[in-house]
Each structure stands twice: as C-alpha cells, then as structure tokens.
Amino acid sequence: MLFNSLEFIFLFLPINILIFFQIGKLGNYRFAILFLITTSFFFYAWWNPRYLLILIFSVIFNYFVGLALNKKIQKSIHKKLTLIIGIVVNLALIGYFKYTNFFISIVSDITGINFNLDNIILPLAISFFTFQQISYLVDAYKGEIKEYNFLDYCLFVTFFPQLIAGPIVHHKDIIFQFENKNIYRYNPENMAVGVTIFSIGLFKKVVFADTIAVYATPIFDAASQGIAPTFISAWIAALAYTLQLYFDFSGYSDMAIGIARMFGIKLPINFNSPYKAISIIDFWRRWHITLSNFLRDYLYIPLGGSRQGKLRRNFNLLITMLLGGIWHGAGWTFVFWGGLHGIYLIINHQWRSWQKSLGHDLNNRNWLDISFGWLLTFFAVVISWVIFRAENMNTAFILLKGMIGLNGISISELFLYQSFFWIISLLIIALFTPNTQEWMTSYNPALNHSLANNSSADNLHLWKRLQWRPNQVWAMLTGTMTVIALLKLTKVSEFLYFQF
Q1: How far apart, in Å, are the Cα atoms of 205 and each of 247, 459, 494, 499?
Q2: What is the rounded CA–CA span in Å between residue 137 and residue 59?
Q3: Total count of domains within the chain
Q4: Number of helices and strands in the chain (H, E)
C-alpha cells in the first residue's frame, strides 16, 4: 500500500488512528501495540501476501537471536558464533532475493551458459528491515541493549510508517517511546504537526517529483534503447532526475515522519537539504542520514575507520561506499555509483588534509570557496545520479556522452521551455528555501531535528517569521496543498526508494 494512494489516505490511515486511540483510551497499551503490529502486517501484505512470511520469519528469528546474545553467555566464542550465525542468516536472506539474479547473470556472461532459473522477485523493504535488525544484533552482542518484550521489538521492526523505505531506525531511538503512556492518548498538537508534515511530503511527491519525472523518464528510456540524447536533452534528463529523486525521497521521508507523529512517535531525520551541501562529505551527512549512520557505525568504524592511517582510511571508505552502492541494488550501475562516491570521498578527505596542512581554517571559508565547493559537489552528484538511474552501464555512458556534447545540441523548443521552467523552479526551492524540519522547528517535528541546517532560517528573518504555527493561515495552506495533491492522484506512482 502506498502513502500516496486514496485507500491509504481515506481508509487505512484514519481507521488506524481512530481505533488506536480508542484502545489507548481504555488503558490497554499492550493491546494497542498489538493492534499496530497487526495493521502493519496488513499494510505490508497489501503488496504481496505471500512475502509476509519472510517478514514474520525475520522478526521472530532476530528477536530470539537477540535474546541469546543478551544472555550472559559464559564463553565469548559462543557469543561471537551466535552473532555470526544471526548476521549470516540475515545476509543470506537478502542475498538470495536481491542478488541471486545478478550473480547468475555474471556467471552466464563469463561461461556463456544460459541458466534457466525463474526470475526472483525482490520482497518489499527487505533491505531496510534486514539492516535495522543487524544493527540490533550487533548492539546486543556489545551488551548495549536491555531485554525487550516481543511486542515492542516486533513493532520496532514493522511499524508501518517506516517499514517500506525507512528511515532505518535504531532500537534505542524508538522502543523507549512505546513505554511512554502519553502516546496512547490523542494529542491535538501531534496530530496537527503530523498532518502538516504529511501534507508537505504528499505535495512534494505528487506535484514536484511526479511532474519533473516527465522530463527525465523518456530520455533515460530512449537511451536504454540506444538512442543518443543531444547535449541539452541529456542535461535536462540528468537535472530532472536529480530533482525527481530529491523531492520523491524528501516527500517520502516527510510523509513517514508525519504519519508516525500522528501516533505520537518521533522518527529520526533522514533527509536534510542535501543539495545545499558544499562537499561530498557534507552531502553524505545530509542524504539518507540513517543509512549513512548505519554504514559508518556498523561497517566503516569496525573496518578501522580513520584510526590506522590515511591509506587504510581510504580503503575503508571505498569498501563502505561500494557496499552502500550494492545495498541500493543488484547491478553494475549501483556498484559503479557506490565506487564513484567512494572515490569522491577519498578525494574530499585528501583535499581537506592538504588544506589543514597549509594552515587553512576549514570552518571559516569565504563566499568564493563556499560557492565553488557547492558547484563542484552538485556537479559530481548529478553525474553520479545518471549512473544510478541508468538501466545499465551502456545507457549511462550514452547519457554521459550526450552531457559532454558528443551527440549534438538540438531540441524541441516547447520541451525546452517547459522543462527549463520546472528545473529552475525546483532548484530554487531545493537550494534557497528552508526544509520541512526548519519550517516546523518550533514543534520538534522529529528526533534530532536540531541536526537540520538552520542557516537559511537564521540568516533571513522572513523565514523565521514564516515558520509553522497552528493557526488559520497554515491550516488553509496545508489544506490547499492537500487538495492540489489529491486532485493530481489520477495515477498513483511508487516511491523511487521502494525498489531498494
């Protein structure tokens, strides 16, 4: 079931909210949690009921492995073996469904043998709930968690606002909230904040992301058929997809946070104006924040991080980003995309080290350094998104050749003017207006909302005056955005991150 579908907006969500708070009013909090777990399973099964068994198995298996790790196992080797078994089973599950087809295609290309194997369908959200539980097992091994009851753990994994495409929540950020009895009582402020954030996200997805997609998809599809785009067409496709992915992911993140807030739960920020980044390091602190944190805490740091010299640090960065690319999908484009960002990060760290050696203050840059840093970062990100979006590497090279002018320059004027309007408009919004967390900052919209970059709100008094308040003006604005978005829901489109 999609957040941007009529059955979700007018049936599933309001019915859940109504029954949840009615149960909470009776004081039966365990039953309220059980109700949310049941409806979350229903939400997941809406896509394909048979894959619900995979989610149920994953939850039960990891809960009991976590219990075993939480017990005082006498021999550390037994504890380590338990952790290894837990991680291997999780990786085997995701490996089979997500990467079997990819590896078979590689073997077929090498050997020339065509293996007759049915195409394996990727279960929805398997990357998200698997990584979420791997972090839980590692923390249990380290002795950093207390023993949770099964219902709390089950809701931590399956809570429907974050189940399908994140954020990848950490147990310590979520489970303790279930113990707060206030969340089971209807709170007008939570509802107002949640509905507003959800409406903003819905508007971003339906009005911005789906509209700009019209200028990216045909050109990428044509390139996959071997039709080379001209210079302007290639850049239109690249920039349009860059903005489509931005508002699609930003919109989903807002909607997830907004829905959870309606239930009194605060999810972590997963998206913080990444196109305002002035370096690749800065970009990865803003883009898919919970995945970046997972890769840092459970891969980069265990590999040694930056503690063993620059050469080892660079190797660790490259391995981490390669695996981050593979996490997004089974294909050479994702491998290349991850590796490219690994190289970006290595160059960025080397550049920072060189600047520090010259005595430069990296925290006190002039406007020229900031502008150049932003331009270089944005250009590098756009190039990488072309590879990320392309159906295969041949398609990516066709588009990249067009972007450097090897395929001519001509284009339809009507197409040019329409795409130019949307690209410029959405770039202005992405680069010069506060993000949702900044608009809502006075009402603590999410966990760690203070991480959001407030430079635009602090530097311009106008933005501070326009921050969200529970008043008639914002109510009318929220209502207008919702109506416009609903009127455009003639064709429901999936969120881009659902495929990962």
Answers
A1: 6, 28, 10, 16
A2: 12
A3: 2
A4: 24, 0
| Mean pLDDT, the chain, integer | 89
Helix, strand and coil content of the chain, in percent to the nearest 5, comes to: 75, 0, 25
Spot the catalytic one: 328, 341, 349, 449: 328
148 with 124, same domain: the answer is: yes
d(CA 68, CA 145): 12
Among 186, 215, 240, residue at a domain's last position: 186
Per-residue pLDDT tens over the stretch 450-493: 666 554 444 555 677 778 888 888 899 999 999 999 998 877 67
Summarize pLDDT for 288-332 with one digit per residue, the tens.
Answer: 999 999 999 999 999 998 888 889 999 999 999 999 999 998 899
CA 214 to chain centre: 22
Q: Which helix (H) or strand (E) holds 347?
A: helix 332-357
Q: Which residues have a Cβ under 8 Å from the Cβ of 310 and sit 6 or more positions away?
A: 349, 350, 353
Q: Is 171 a catalytic residue?
A: no
State the average pLDDT over residues 144-166.
90
**In a shared domain, residues 167 and 239:** no
Instruction: Give residue 360's identity as a one-letter amino acid code.
Output: H
Mark which of 186, 208, 229 sits at the end of a domain: 186
What is the rounded CA–CA span in Å between residue 398 and residue 396?
5
Domain holding 465, by residue range, is 190-499
* Residues with Cβ within 8 Å of residue 274, at least 6 apart in sequence: 246, 283, 286, 287, 381
Considering the domain architecture, whether residues 171 and 257 belong to the same structural domain is answered as no
Judge whether 382 lies within some domain: yes
Residues 338 and 260 placed together within one structural domain of the fold: yes
How far is Cα 64 from Cα 80, in angstroms, rounded to an integer? 15
DSSP label of 298: I
- Rounded CA gap, 419 and 417, in Å? 6
